[in-house]
Amino acid sequence: MHPARLSEPMRWLMVEPGRMRTECTGFGFNLVSGNYEFAALVVIEDEEFWPRFGGVVEANWEVSGLRQYSSLDRELVGELITDEKWTNEGLFAFLLGLRRLSEIGGARVSLPPIDLRC
Question: Considering the domain boundaries, does residue 73 fall inside one?
């Protein structure tokens, strides 16, 4: 996307390298739909982002509402994992992202153990 089209929070993140990063956390083949699934994790490394822009972040048009969960709230994240509203590809991406976040997040995360088996 052209920098002029970025929102203020995205411009702020892009100005300084190291404020955020994106990682591919997994790849799968969805046997139900026949689609390839790429799971990604976007990590906001700069602690200033949420206090500064938390009220400005909006969901895209496909989402009816935006909910925020803390990576320090182990119980709430555990409940979210077991929510029956997940699509199979959504849960796949979410669990892979949580697993990676638990590896790299240090003191900023307190997540339930995630053991993925095939």
Answer: yes
CA-nearest of 76, 77, 79 to 97 is: 77
Q: What is the pLDDT of residues 42-91, one digit of tens each?
A: 999 999 999 999 888 877 777 777 778 889 999 999 999 999 999 989 99
The number of distinct structural domains making up the chain is 1
User: Does residue 117 lie in a domain region?
Assistant: no
User: Cα–Cα distance between 50 and 8 in angstroms, integer?
Assistant: 13
Does residue 26 belong to any structural domain of this protein?
yes
Tell me if 114 is assigned to some domain: no
φ, ψ for residue 26, nearest 5 deg: -175, 165
Q: Report pTM.
A: 0.80
**Exposed/middle/buried for 44, CB within 10 Å: 0-12, 13-18, 19+?**
middle
The whole domain housing 25 covers: 3-108
Contact 80, 65 (CB under 8 A): no
- CA-CA distance, 89 to 87, in Å (whole number)? 5
